[in-house]
## 1
Amino acid sequence: MNQKLEQFFATCPRGLEALLAEELRTQGAQQIAVTQGGVGFAGEFELCYRVNLHARLASRVLWRIGGGDYQDEEDVYQGALSLDWPAFFSVDHTIMVKVTAQRAPLKSLEFVTLRIKDAVCDRFREMVGERPSIDTRDPGVRIHAYLTAETCTIYLDTSGQALFKRGLRKQAGLAPLNENLAAGMVMLSGWQPGTPFFDPMCGSGTLLMEAALMALHIAPGSGRNFGFERLYRFQEKIWQDLRQAAQAAQLPPTPQGIYGRDMFGSMLDDARANVLAAGLGNVIELKQGNVLEIPAPARSGIIVTNPPYGVRIGEESELAEFYPRLGDWLKRQCAGWNAYILSADMALPKLIRLNASRRTPLYNGALECRLFEYKIVAGSARREKTES
């Protein structure tokens, strides 16, 4: 007998939606619908186990449990009250409600959040005689509501902690990339295991580790727990079988031609701590070195890096000197490589004085960026100074 198809929505960093849709398709998702900031999809409930375990690009996997039209806060309250909350999870779990909206006519999202929380608690009190407690820092169950101009959709979060929290990174740098954005950058580069991978400004090592997880077929969620484990729909046997299959598919941690460099010893210490904690010490080669002076670690390959781009005041002049020298280094040391450089400053990459063959819009949180692609060949054509 076929099980009912459940409706889900996976969020992700903006710019990675199409890649996420393809990831979901490989996990068996149906009815895939790409929208800004995420992808809707359908499948049997167990699909959310696989997506949470294997998706490298998703931030959260939300399970749609209700929704409908509304005109005011009372309509939202009644819609939430109509759901059989005690059928989803135990009153012993703490809860948190988060509301996001687009073009909603209501004056206060905080008040809407409060009304949904009241509806959940009122329903529990009516059905089981007590209500769940609220915990906004580390809740057992996360409830999400999404409002448009006319509709309210209510979800249960099957992920728990955001999926980019792999449970691997022990130290974070000053401006670390979220792991799913880093994974997206690696995928957008077209890199394949077996090709040298190089981050010459590796910071705490996030890009390197995401490449290593891909090379070794390590499921990004294999070392953590998930929100779906606290729901009544959870089936332990199915989940354990999926985890064991993922572990059986992993390759041994052997060298993979993944290289990281950083000029700051403290940053390299953070990267080394992260790599060792993840069991990737034999997989990734880390050395200290200034990007403007070091040689490329192989004759050709893929460079993916997140250099500084002047978020703090006073860095502009320093970076205006750095980027032309970075272009010189790419031409001198990296002929035969393809380089992918993330920047939130659209002017700085022009100072590299190499022609970008592609500019992919990405968002690092709320920060709009571009991933610039440079194909480095011997004698790479420089832009004339007069070219805009």
Note: The chain has two domains: 6-157, 179-222+251-375.
## 2
Amino acid sequence: MSTRHAAGPIRVLVADDSSTMRSLVVEVLSAVPEIAVVGEAGDGLQAVREARRLEPDIVTMDVRMPNMDGIEAIRRIMQERPCRIIVVTGVKDERDGGDLSLRAIEAGALELVAKPASGPEEIERFARRLTTSVRLMAAVPVVRRRAMAPGDTTPTAPVAVPCPTNDDAGRVSSRRPIVIARAADRRVDVVAIAASTGGPPALATILGGLPQSFPAPLLVAQHMAPGFGEGLVRWLASVSPLDVRVATSGQHAVAGCVYLPPDRHHLEIDPGGVLRVEPATGGHCPSADRLFSSVARAYRDRAAAIVLTGMGEDGARGLIAVARAGGVTWAQDEESSIVYGMPRAAIVHGGATTIVSLSQIAEAIVGLVAQPHAP
């Protein structure tokens, strides 16, 4: 694992086959004092060469480029000289290109930023989004490890560990492995999952490992840039035997289906198992806290909530609500998380009762929902 040196500006390589778009990205980033654009690339092959030569902290990468597309370039960079990669692409290209951006995340990219439409307001929003992403991603450690493919069930140890008592510095002080206990007197009737940075490949691993006959609905709050939500749904559906859908208000959540909210909407569920989507007005979107809190109210001790990799603390308060209602609460372990912010917050604030390795979550979830109802 490597981290960026604190001294000096954030060094960025800009890769895009459009000279107009490259110039815009360079102009936007160069206007920020703590960011330095150290190079440009007009195709994927050049991006790989320049990443090797310049060793940037961050690469902004288009996906549709000549000679070598962005996806292959990301794979090569992550193999040869890993760094943080932000995909900057057009939403229309995404829809027409078979969800290339999600495949880029699978290859190792961390974040998606949509190219702006014409007009000063769109460009201003794009500039804010891009510069914020660069600042945030610069703090993310770069980890060299084998990519985990959907359905990968290679055993790792430990399967799970109890959430420890944190020391004064908030460090994890206990790593004693335990086996996830299956509830003997009840079963889980809904599973809610939240994730942010690094979440799509983690979700693919989990959903790809579940059986088509999975006997409960799954509700997902994955932080995603506007314009890419439907692509995420299509991509997850392609790697999972389950029915992955965009949720709509008023529909009943049914077993064997995975529900994600539309772009710019939150997802909740009521005690009758009816889904509700509401427009987001600010903050994290979709909100993990809102999803988990609704699950706690609706299902109480028949709910399971899981916080996966991601930046920030969204989900920590909602997980506490599920725990207080008697439900099952897990957090992904640090070793398999791309960013340990959300899982760590869930642990530090006391919402998560168990730390679980990504490669074992699917099997563990099946164990939770397979129990018969208590008489």
Note: The chain has two domains: 10-137, 160-369.
## 3
Amino acid sequence: MRFLTADYLFPLYIAPIKEGVLQISDDGQVIAIFKNRREVPQDKLEIFEGILCPGFVNAHCHLELSHLKGNAEKGKGFLEFSNIIRQRDSYTDTAKQQAIEKAEQEMIANGIVGVGDICNTSDTLEQKQKENLKYYNFIETFGVDVNKVYVVFNQAIELRNEFRAAGQKASIVPHAPYSVPPVLMQKINNAFDDNDELLTIHMQETKEENQLLENKKGPFFDWLNGMNATSSIWKNRDKSTDILQELGDKKVLLVHNTFAKKEDITDNYYCTCPRANLYIENDLPDYSIFDTNKLCVGTDSLASNNSLSILDELLIIQNNSNFDLNTLLKIACKNGAKALGFEHLGTFEKGKIPGVNLIKSMAENKITKLI
């Protein structure tokens, strides 16, 4: 049993506590919180400089792309970035596995305890079975050619079943409004079952996405036509958020939202990946439009980021919003846990096993994972 205290304790379900004490079991379960250090045995007290908060939740990652780190040139836009992604299979299985293991270790070292991970392959499954982190695996579908929808969907079913058979949480999800036609969306809806809790989708990541759906022209229009894309993608949708009507009343996590406007925001969960947005598009969302009780944060992949650090992401958000520290930490911990259904993560409520991070300096990214 341990009694941990620092300059401030951030339980994230109640207000921060100056010199608050967190009592935690040897296996990391929260037993109690004390508002005064004198309430606990002084010889048991572990005193740290900085702040204590729960472990971080990385709500959006592509762990399987870790081997592509450094391949994409910054600021060239999504279409150029997508060409880099096509290189994913030009690497050996050994190189991929080594990159995946290293990336997971980086997340652990940076205080991450839970991950919402996009999967197009089973490359990460071996590492995830070690249960170093809690994962929600999103089996992504991308099928613009209506003649290939059945093949794309059946492959997704097989991959989802493979993850589930290995004891992993997994759901089939759409890639983006411009890459999933209505017929494929219907299949995704029909596949949603009692084991599913959440759908996620890339949303308004680029200006070209909005231009395609609102104006029926532009670089994405030409790109998709070059792939024999069905016109129902843009004819049936006048804006990106129209696809949400096809998802019904399911819980949804919308990712990126870099070019979203206030009128686009719905009662769903939102995830921002600021360093990836700067890396690919050199732009950021307007953080004032989001409900901070529904906003999460992710790192995206090492193909579009230099690090897998939630603290790095928070620093960007802090410099481009008016969010206070408690709000930033809720975005990094509590909201992601709620969105992904990780009931035992996110806050220091009694009975949870959320991990414990000691942040010595936000600006300098000095963090220690205590538990």
Note: The mean pLDDT is 95.
## 4
Amino acid sequence: MNNGSQSTEASFEAFRGQALGIFAVLCAGFVASQFYRVSNAVIAPELMRTLAISAEAMGVITGMYFLTFAAAQLPAGILLDRFGPRRTMSALFILAVVGSVVFALAQGVAGLAIGRGLMGLGCATGLMGALVAIARWFPPGRFAQLSSLLYTIGGAGFLLATTPLAAIAGGFGWRGAFWMMAVVTALLAVLLYAVVRDRPAGQEIPESARETPGEIWQGMKDVLANRELRFVCAMQFVTFGTTLAVVGLWAGPYFNDVHGLQGVMRGNLLLLLNISMLVGVMAFTFIERWLNSRKWAIGGGAILSVVLLAILALVPDLGLWPATVLLVAFGLSSAHVMLIHAHARVVLPDHLVGRGLTLQNLAVFLGVFTIQSASGLIVGQFDDGTAGAPEAAYRAVFGFLALATLLALAIYLRCRNVRPMAEGAAT
């Protein structure tokens, strides 16, 4: 255990109440970030109708969030290491406020796209900034559990961006909904600055807070040269992209085209898949402690995902309920994704945590783009001009995702193991 970890262990009991308060505020900020991420899905039809926006333009508008979010990761990592989560997160949230206002005032594609882009910049540290703060305020043995809990609570942001957002937009219009979100986000920015502290009182200020520009650049080079972080990034590049390709992209069309499910029933099954993911995120924190191995908890989840995807790919004419069971099981098994963040934390020295975590988060978003784009090309190969895609198209996608996961796992398993029980007792 390094000196920073010893200091965190020693100070936790004295600052338990303050640490838990900070964690609560970080959770609230992450809920807002998740809300912004998916909010376009509910209001897109109204936007397209009222502002005469094409489907192609709507795709660009929605994608702007992810483009600016990904582009901000490495600079945000430098800011987190240099200035800490408190100032970095609260300042960036102000950009999200501006983005929400611009979006609410927009009269066309340009305004909407600029607004979404500012939202992406503003939320760029919603998860990674929270993880940096958790690393400084809580003992190492709590990192995986708390990061998983943070992600699970963040799922409320997805839920708020569905029926509640639709209800608000129905009563006050989509512009009114984003004016309200601007106010909420401004309050969260104030709360982040007022409550969050970069480290417990008395804890040594990290080297990164005193870095010169040359040292900042050297730190970035050290992160890029970190061999084990590369293995983690390989897993990150594939895992979340594969999960979103199934749960967030192709599961709905698969249920529609192959099993003929209409809106409500299809939506219910997709909700079940998303719930299974959130349940799985917390379950894996217990699995890794039961195994006392982070690498093999992640590896076991990945192997199970490969098996489930392989069955979906290789077995023709699966009935609706066998297919549903396999996909729900995949949602559970794919939830090992948050443990990968915890593994990335372990291979990073304290003064490079911000840059290292944002680098592997950049791998996540690049992977989402690459995996989803490749899967779209695969489905397109089966386009025969009729409505919907044939079962063979989805089986090909499931097979591709299984092979990609297997390849990433082979790279990741070269990483050293982490024994959760040895990281520090979770008192």
Note: Residues 1-200 form a domain with the Growth Hormone; Chain: A; fold (CATH 1.20.1250.20).
